[in-house]
Specification:
Blueprint (H helix, E strand, L loop, with lengths): L7 E5 L3 H14 L4 E5 L2 H10 L4 E5 L7 H11 L4 E7 L3 H4 L9 E5 L3 H22 L4 H22 L4 H4 L2 H4 L6 E9 L14 H14 L4 E5 L7 E9 L3 H16 L6 E4 L6 H16 L9 E4 H4 L11 H12 L3 H16 L6 H18 L6 H16 L4 H38 L7 H8 L3 H12 L3 H19 L4 H7 L5 H12 L3 H8 L3
Parallel strand pairs: 1-2, 1-3, 3-4, 4-5, 9-10
Antiparallel strand pairs: 6-8, 6-9, 7-8
Length: 534
């Protein structure tokens, strides 16, 4: 058995039997390895985009995406992944063309277990050697490298804050920033712990590819990572680009985005205009880039936004939504979820056809409308639910990340408000129904459990709702109704005390007498004599 190291391996072959046999062999040789089976190159590529893979054993001829196309993509995008090509004798000469894609080994069909073991051992040794080289820096070198990066980060932050001394004191490295140039602010998303992937995110490998493209396009750039938004999956980086005009930067980034979209990699960029002296204007340029980057709000598939082209958009006012607000008022008063959804959709369509205004304006306009509608429902919703819904609205709008999401949030919040309003109305109706039931069944068993079952409420919940309605605990309220009935029967009828006790739900007349005396400080007989009109 091979000396075991935890690795992730993919076996790709469209022949199920061949695929399964090879998977079993690897499991037998390397029990700790994670082995994934795929039937074509597309399945392999999809996995690569989600998580790193150490070794791929792939056949040449497969449907959808063949082995040669797959290893070309691996060579270009995942250079650390080792490829072992599986080929038949008649394909061997053809497979040798794969050398240019750095295929590390071949398995010729039909192969023996010892051959698989030999190939895997060789590749595993290569991976171990590469890892050792990467970790060969001693502790001093690691700390020194980290300190150097931190020093550079602090200097760049000073420059972006307008501290020109940072440039003068580091003339050798930062003197080029005295030239003309542009500031770009990049934004991208990486995977987070949230299982609900609403947005397209970049894996660590995709993020590496993205940065490689940026480094290639701007070899003289100064890059400074920015602090994360409240959403930890959002990342930003400032690029100071000396001797690059805004138009040149825009064209390069547009080209880069178009190329990376083919690899399911997207990003957004906000650009300043061209500054005559980048160092003098870095702070102003960063503000411009931040303002432009805000337009990612409208483009879920990535985008490049230039100050030269878009700064006039900042002054465009939002369109009036008064007619939609009036319609929403009516829909909510009628508890009409479907109508409310149609109105939100109509408002979204109408605004999407208008000239785009600055994102914060439209977010503020729509969120203000919805929060105002929620506040008008305060008395129609249980207080606890209302407080929770209002807090939820503030949080959701603060985290709102796109034009589409803005209206999804609005629809969700109003939908919850309508349902809560319906619930309170239904609960009020149920409590009234419960009171009517109690009043017409005073001679029956009126235990809290039985009455709660009648209206399908939990006993404790019903007790609380009744107390809100009548101001008395359940047992006190039932006793009050029974005593009121007893008084009426004593005055209006000539029934015996025992009969009246039964009609009021007391099967023990002695107990009825005690309870009556406790309530009125007089016996039932004396009460009748004192109040009955003969």
């Amino acid at each position: 058995m091979m000396n075991e190291v935890q690795l992730r391996i993919i076996v790709a072959d469209d022949e199920a039997m061949q695929r399964n046999v090879l998977k079993k062999i690897i499991h037998k040789l390397c029990p700790t390895f994670e082995v994934i089976a795929c039937s074509n190159g597309k399945e392999v590529y999809d996995i690569l985009m989600e998580k790193p893979v150490d070794i791929i054993l792939t056949d040449i001829r497969m449907p959808i995406m063949g082995g040669m196309e797959l290893i070309k993509k691996i060579f270009e995008e995942y250079p650390k992944t080792k490829v072992i090509l599986i080929s038949a004798y008649q394909e061997f000469e053809y497979a040798q063309n794969a050398i240019k894609y750095k295929v590390v080994e071949y398995l010729i069909k039909p192969f023996r277990i010892t051959e698989v073991q030999k190939v895997l051992q060789k590749v595993r040794n290569e991976i171990r050697k590469e890892n050792e080289n990467e970790n060969s820096l001693n502790k001093y070198q690691v700390l020194a490298t980290k300190a150097k990066k931190q020093e550079e980060y602090n200097l760049l932050q000073d420059i972006l804050k307008g501290n020109l001394e940072a440039v003068k004191s580091n003339e050798d490295k930062y003197g080029i920033l005295q030239e003309f140039g542009t500031v770009a602010l990049l934004r991208w998303r990486t995977e987070s712990g949230d299982s609900k992937k609403v947005y397209r995110t970049l894996s660590q490998q995709q993020q590496s590819i993205f940065m490689e493209h940026i480094s290639f396009l701007f070899p003289n750039m100064f890059l400074s990572p920015q602090a994360n938004d409240f959403n930890k999956s959002v990342h930003k980086a400032v690029l100071l680009l000396p001797k690059e005009t805004a138009l040149e930067v825009e064209q390069k980034l547009e080209y880069c985005l178009n190329q990376l979209r083919q690899k399911n990699i997207i990003f957004w960029a906000g650009l300043s205009n061209t500054k005559l002296c980048l160092a003098d204007s870095a702070a102003e340029a960063l503000v411009q880039a931040e303002e432009m980057l805000a337009f990612y709000f409208y483009e879920t598939g990535g985008g490049v936004f230039s100050f030269d082209k878009m700064h006039t958009v900042m002054d465009i006012p939002t369109k009036s939504t008064a007619s939609f607000e009036n319609q929403l008022h009516r829909a909510i008063r009628n508890y009409d979820l479907n109508q409310m959804g149609d109105i939100i959709a109509g408002m979204k369509t109408a605004l999407s056809k208008e000239s785009r205004c600055y994102p914060n304006k439209i977010k503020h306009r729509i969120s203000s409308v919805i929060v105002l509608l929620l506040k008008e429902l305060e008395n129609a919703i249980l207080q606890e639910q209302y407080d929770q819904l209002l807090n939820q609205s503030y949080q959701m709008y603060a985290e709102c990340d796109s034009f589409d999401q803005l209206f999804e949030i609005s629809k969700q919040l109003l939908g919850q408000a309508i349902q809560c309003s319906r619930q309170k109305v239904n609960q009020s109706d149920a409590v009234e129904e419960c009171i009517a039931y109690i009043k017409t069944h005073l001679d029956s068993d009126l235990s809290l459990q039985k009455v709660a079952e009648y209206v399908h409420f939990h006993p404790n919940y019903l007790s609380g709702k009744l107390k809100e309605k009548v101001g008395l605990p359940y047992s006190v309220y039932v006793l009050k109704l029974r005593m009121e009935l007893a008084c009426r029967l004593l005055i209006d009828t000539n029934g015996k005390i025992q009969e009246i006790a039964l009609k009021c739900g007391f099967h023990d007349s002695n107990y009825f007498n005690r309870m009556f005396r406790r309530e009125f400080n007089i016996s039932p007989e004396h009460y009748r004599k004192a109040h009955k009109k003969w």
